[in-house]
Write a structure and sequence with these properties.
Phosphatase 2c, domain 1; alpha+beta; single chain; about 25% strand
């Protein structure tokens, strides 16, 4: 397995509210763990929410007695969610904070994914597959047939999300499982990337660079060249390659 992660403030923001974590080594009962979060909230609340969620998830995963990757990720996200809600109740300045999260584990040739919000996970090979489904107002309009895919990319309410860690006590988490094939590469990212680069261009960049570091850096550079309107976080995983 070879991986590379990068987070960038972008061209228009004065603070980076994204946060990520990567470990190719075991984390508790997990063989590896990759997490990307995109915080929201005024002052420093969004920055706190994303960092707190990721760090709490890692801590919980290390101590979890669960065996299945999805069960461990569910326990970790719910623990972070409860903690954020309590923190917001104690700190008026942090009221309304929250964060997206997308987490992934590769085990035995299979990919396990957990998702809340509109940060995404893709599998990239000869084509590009968006595994996660955005929890956003605009995406729900697309699913109901009220809005076309191209119009959705330009919709003014595109950044309104319908689920977030820290928003409600009974958090809803989506889980996905996919088999990993030879040549597959995995991309976790925030919407600071996907709002700036079309999916097919993401695939072309990933397949056109030599290694995980070049792929991630080229994605961030291209997003910034296209406007960089938000923070950009990218984790690239080549799950079947040798070495680290």
């Amino acid at each position: 397995m070879k991986t590379f992660s990068i987070t960038d403030i972008g061209m228009c923001r004065n603070m980076n509210q994204d946060y990520c974590y990567t470990s190719e080594l075991p984390v508790g009962n997990l063989p590896n763990l990759f997490i990307v979060a995109d915080g929201m909230g005024g002052h420093n609340a969004g920055e706190f929410a994303s960092r707190y969620t990721v760090e709490t998830m890692v801590q919980k995963a290390r101590s979890s007695l669960q065996a299945h990757p999805s069960d461990i990720m569910e326990e970790a996200i719910k623990t972070a969610n409860d903690g954020l809600i309590k923190k917001a109740a104690q700190e008026p300045a942090m009221w309304g904070m929250g964060t997206t999260v997308v987490a992934a584990v590769v085990a035995g040739g299979r990919l396990y994914v957990a998702n809340v919000g509109d940060s995404r996970l893709y599998i990239v090979n000869d084509d590009i597959l968006q595994v996660t489904k955005d929890h956003s107002y605009v995406e729900e309009m697309v699913r109901r047939g009220q809005l076309g895919r191209e119009a959705a990319r330009r919709h003014p309410d595109k950044n309104i999300i319908t689920r977030a860690v820290g928003a409600v006590k009974d958090i809803q988490i989506d889980f996905f499982e996919e088999d990993i094939r030879y040549g597959d590469e995995i991309l976790l990212c925030t919407d600071g990337l996907t709002n700036m680069i079309e999916d097919e261009d993401i695939r072309r960049i990933i397949k056109g660079q030599r290694d995980a570091a070049e792929k991630a850096e080229c994605l961030v550079n291209t997003a910034n060249q296209n406007g960089g309107r938000d923070n950009i976080t990218v984790v690239v995983i080549d799950p079947l390659s040798g070495g680290t």
